[in-house]
């Protein structure tokens, strides 16, 4: 072990000094990604001022899984970047930093796992977690129709204009995109309408002036104004279950209408935490 340790220290001393660009095999070394049982074994090859590493992850006996990466100096130690090609086709990406005195250090991956990066380690433990698949968001399209107009004058804070429909969520973050056509009828002195999308009566964020959130759609008129509207709203922590999509409004000396003409309108829900 003393010979191996001396070889590794010498290797990274050379790395810090940036030796000439002749390819040179330094040796083969192993680290365990504790607290998991996975052991990464790589051969280190000098390539100019940096080192290429190739080898395998033993997957706790279920491997080998090919490993490629690079080693570079970092703050008096050495940092590795590894890519592990698993048999199921998923790629795990790890970063590890070692101390030149102990040759051990710490590691972390893209899923937030991490721990001790133990030189020559062989402790028992569970396999490192499988990287999660990155999937497209699940889409739910809610189509609605029907003219809804409020004959108010000044309405503040916002109140319910109409229910659009319902959707079932797995819970977590989601984006709601409202596509419609709105209208404002106001006196010659002017007036305006504000429209906003809510889920179960709850706005996407804290209310500001007039009870409106920053994503509210505004239509101001001197007489009558019609306009198409597309509004995307982020909801960060929606509970799992069935929810109701709603359009709320606020008005100042105006009558506000969603979907004059009774066309088919749509709200699209994108769930980013859906399985």
Protein described:
It is a single chain. By secondary structure, this protein is mainly beta. The protein contains 1 helix and 18 strands. It has an 8-stranded antiparallel barrel. Strands 9, 10, 12, 15, 17 and 18 form a 6-stranded antiparallel β-sheet that branches. The protein is elongated. The two termini are 47 Å apart.
CATH class descriptor name of the largest domain: Mainly Beta
| Overall number of domains | 2
Number of strands: 18
Task: Strand order, main sheet: write it out.
Answer: 1-2-3-4-5-6-7-8
Major beta sheet summary: 8 strands, antiparallel, barrel
Parts with pLDDT < 50 across at least 5 consecutive residues: 1-7, 14-21
């Amino acid at each position: 072990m003393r010979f191996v340790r001396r070889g590794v220290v010498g290797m990274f001393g050379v790395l810090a000094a940036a030796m000439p660009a002749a390819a040179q095999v330094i040796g083969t070394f192993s680290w365990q990604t504790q607290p998991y049982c996975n052991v990464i074994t790589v051969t280190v090859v000098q390539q100019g001022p940096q080192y290429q590493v190739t080898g395998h992850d033993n997957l706790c006996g279920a491997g080998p899984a090919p490993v490629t990466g690079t080693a570079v100096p970092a703050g008096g130690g050495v940092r590795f970047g590894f890519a592990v090609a698993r048999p199921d086709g998923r790629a795990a990406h790890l970063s590890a930093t070692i101390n030149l005195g102990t040759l051990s250090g710490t590691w972390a991956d893209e899923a937030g796992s991490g721990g001790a990066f133990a030189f020559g380690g062989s402790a028992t433990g569970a396999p490192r977690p499988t990287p999660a698949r990155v999937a497209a968001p699940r889409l739910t399209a809610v189509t609605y129709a029907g003219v809804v107009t409020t004959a108010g004058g000044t309405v503040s804070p916002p109140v319910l204009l109409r229910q659009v429909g319902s959707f079932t969520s797995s819970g977590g973050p989601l984006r709601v995109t409202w596509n419609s056509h709105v209208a404002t009828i106001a006196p010659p002195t002017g007036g305006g309408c504000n429209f906003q999308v809510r889920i179960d009566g709850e706005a996407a964020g804290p209310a500001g002036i007039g009870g409106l959130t920053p994503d509210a759609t505004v239509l101001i008129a001197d007489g009558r104004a019609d306009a198409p509207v597309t509004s995307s709203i982020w909801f960060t922590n929606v509970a799992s279950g069935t929810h109701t999509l709603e359009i709320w409004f606020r008005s100042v000396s105006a009558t506000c209408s969603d979907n004059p003409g009774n066309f088919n309108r749509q709200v699209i829900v994108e769930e980013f935490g859906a399985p």
